[in-house]
Amino acid sequence: MCQDDSQRQGMVFNVQKYSVHDGPGIRTIVFLKGCSLSCRWCSNPESQQREPELAFNAGRCLGVSKCGHCIVACPHGSITLGEDDKLNINRSHCTECHMPCAAACPAQGLLVYGKK
Q1: Number of compact structural domains in the chain
Q2: The pTM is what?
Q3: Distance between CA atoms of residues 70 and 18, nearest Å
Q4: Taking residues 35-55, what's their average pLDDT?
Q5: With 70 as the cut, is the pLDDT of residue 3 above it?
Q6: Are the C-beta atoms of 109 and 58 separated by less than 8 Å?
Q7: Residue 45's closest CA among 57, 59, 55?
């Protein structure tokens, strides 16, 4: 039985607007998750897993002494204080989680790659 196209869903990890680099014209690019090729030179390794993933950008993180919202928001206690005011993240619980820690991060130090 063939599924109607209007019923199909994809896992998107990024939408890049106003892209002008790959030829003439302006375009919007939608990057999908679930690539099974696993190329060593892949420029988007966050696209390989099919499920949403928690990403950490240390350069954007305000630090626990100034913020700490993500620690409080994590329902599994998987985010803890490490050395030098840095975060330790145990991602083993993130597979069945809606990752409210990323929503609680005001500086987008934590991001979720993947949305239906």
Answers
A1: 1
A2: 0.76
A3: 32
A4: 90
A5: no
A6: yes
A7: 55
Transcribe 32-89 into DSSP letters: ES------TT-S-GGGSSSS-EEEE-TTT---TTT--HHHHH-TT--EEE-GGG-EEE
Residue 12 sits in a domain whose CATH number is 3.30.70.20
In angstroms, the CA 22 to CA 105 distance is 33
AA identity, residue 71? I
Query: Quick one: tokens of 60?
Result: 């954007």
Contact of 94 with 78, CB cutoff 8 Å: yes
| Domain, as residue range, for 70 | 5-113
Place of tokens 């896992």: 11
Stretch 20-26: mean pLDDT? 88
How deeply is 54 buried, as exposed, middle or buried, from its count of CB atoms within 10 A (0-12, 13-18, 19+)? buried
Structure tokens at 112: 């979720």
